[in-house]
Design goal:
Strand order of the largest sheet: 3-2-1-4-5-6-11
CATH class of the largest domain: Alpha Beta
Helix content: 40-55%
Number of domains: 2
Number of strands: 13
Largest sheet: 7 strands, parallel
Order of helices and strands: EHEHEHEHHEHEEHEEEHEEHEHH
CATH superfamily of the largest domain: NAD(P)-binding Rossmann-like Domain
Strand content: 15-25%
Shape: globular
CATH architecture of the largest domain: 3-Layer(aba) Sandwich
Structural class: alpha/beta
Length: 321
């Protein structure tokens, strides 16, 4: 079995690629490498790496040739980067998926697996755990483009019989995630004894989902579900950002203070007061899947950062900032 993973050198992508290689798949990785390469050296030696942009049809077509599954994870990521580059964000999403879908049909791929986002629920998703029947209300360039692509894939399935799975990921975290994301940022601040900076009131909640659980469920749903479907993939537990900061400080035995600061104006479209997902539909298709506790996932993540950054628990200055 041969697969292509766009964005395969990124956070979710590299974990997915590593697992697919371990399972015996032949893997083609298509990535610009503009944000670096998170793939381990031993994995790189086992994949075909194509450096290129998903907006380039020729590059996508060549990389996808002979592949049975196309996993599309290439995207512009990070709230600050997306806020500053809304046009590029939408072009990478829409033109990129159009190329991937066209390549799938041209080369006879069995399925497109698309990384969508819980952001499609927008600011309205504040009263309950949201399932796929909840009315979406995307309001940022990133989430609007993701929702457009979900509809595009559904239309292709109806008109061209292209099978696809769109997965709405909820706040994925774990080893190798960079400091554009909240958990990695908090770990760095805590381990260095710096203030753990929380935007706004800190009462906003997120549904943090561990990367290994995400990869397990993603591969299972890709291999078993037919037709065109959209799924939530979430932990199903909400945590306030302030509590996250406290948990990380305590886990690191840090002297850091959890400090509330004003959010930059550019982040307004991305700020949501409450976010928790319901993955019942996914379980109805693939059965139960592993869901690590937040503390288990955070500890594994911390151990990675300690090694990666060359830091130690409790090594920050004794005096709090």
């Amino acid at each position: 079995m041969k697969v292509m993973v766009t964005g395969g050198a990124g956070f979710i992508g590299n974990h997915l690629v590593t697992r697919l290689v371990d399972m015996g798949y032949d893997v083609v990785v298509l990535d610009t490498l503009l944000r670096g390469n998170k793939l381990d050296k031993d994995v790189l030696e086992k994949v075909e790496l194509v450096q290129g942009d998903v907006r380039d049809w020729d590059v996508v077509s060549r990389a996808a040739k002979g592949c049975d599954y196309l996993y599309h994870y290439a995207a512009v990521l990070g709230v600050d980067i997306v806020a500053d580059n809304p046009v590029e964000t939408m072009e990478v999403e829409t033109a990129g998926l159009a190329n991937v879908a066209r390549a799938a049909m041209l080369h006879g791929a069995k399925k497109v697996v698309y990384a969508s986002t819980s952001g499609v629920y927008g600011k309205r998703a504040i009263e309950q755990a949201v399932d796929e029947e909840f009315e979406v209300s995307p309001n940022s360039s990133y989430s609007i483009a993701k929702r457009y692509n979900e509809i595009y894939l559904k239309s292709l399935c109806q008109e061209k019989q292209l099978e696809s799975i769109s997965i709405r990921y909820f706040n994925v975290y774990g080893p190798k995630q960079d400091q554009r994301m909240v958990m990695a940022k908090f770990f760095r601040q805590a381990l260095e004894g710096k203030p753990i900076t929380v935007f706004g009131t800190g009462k906003q909640t997120r549904d943090f989902t561990y990367i290994d659980d995400v990869v397990d469920a993603t591969i299972r749903v890709a291999e078993s579900v037919r037709g065109c479907q959209v799924f939530n993939l979430s932990h199903g537990q909400e945590t306030t950002i302030h509590r996250l900061g406290v948990l990380i400080r305590d886990m690191c035995r840090s002297t850091s203070e959890v400090t509330l600061i004003d959010a930059p104006k550019g982040r307004y479209d991305f700020e949501v007061e409450r976010r928790i997902g319901d993955s019942s539909k996914l379980r109805s298709f693939i059965g139960d899947f592993s869901v690590r506790t937040l503390e288990e996932g955070m500890r594994t993540t911390m151990e990675y950062y300690l090694d990666h950054w060359g830091l130690q628990i409790g090594s920050a200055p004794e005096k709090r900032s």
